[in-house]
Amino acid sequence: MSTDSRMLVEALGRWADRMELAAPELNALDGQLGDGDLGATLSKCAANIRKAIAPPPADVPGIFKACAIACTKASGSSLGTLLAVAFMTLTKETAGKSQIGDTEWPGLLAAVRDALSARGGARLGDKTVLDAIEAVRLGLEGAGPEGRLPAAKAALEAAIADFRERENRIGRARIFAERSRGLDDPGMIAARHMLESVG
Fold this sequence. Notes:
mainly alpha; 8 helices
């Protein structure tokens, strides 16, 4: 099965709804060791994206580009900036495509992972959203056609549980590295909400 522009717009609508609902939880998580503005930033991104895709751009890369521009207008958490980078990376990676095949998503997520690492300086194992992206990528890559989404969700849950007892190694949370043990990384939990919103 492939994702065309109509399906992508519908998925982004569900994503926006979920970001707004999850905002209080994400703010509270972020506030444990950070600025407490993650949920607010993602909620702003959601509102901006709704406007950017109504009416929707004509093709898949156009939709991703509109989302990238929308996220750059939402000040606040660094994850908002990284989200803009992620959408711009998807814009470049899907250039000329009218749809995205299911088997293409692991490669797209790898490109996003690398772009975010280059932009933010985080590496796999630092207990950030990168680790969530990699878990989802591996889950998708190792599953058959009918089980990709459940496998991705299971892989992400396993990663969240694994990283919970680790220390944050980057960002403001690294200053309180010892206190970060036993706490979920807000970016990873945001990724959970994003994944659950698509289906």
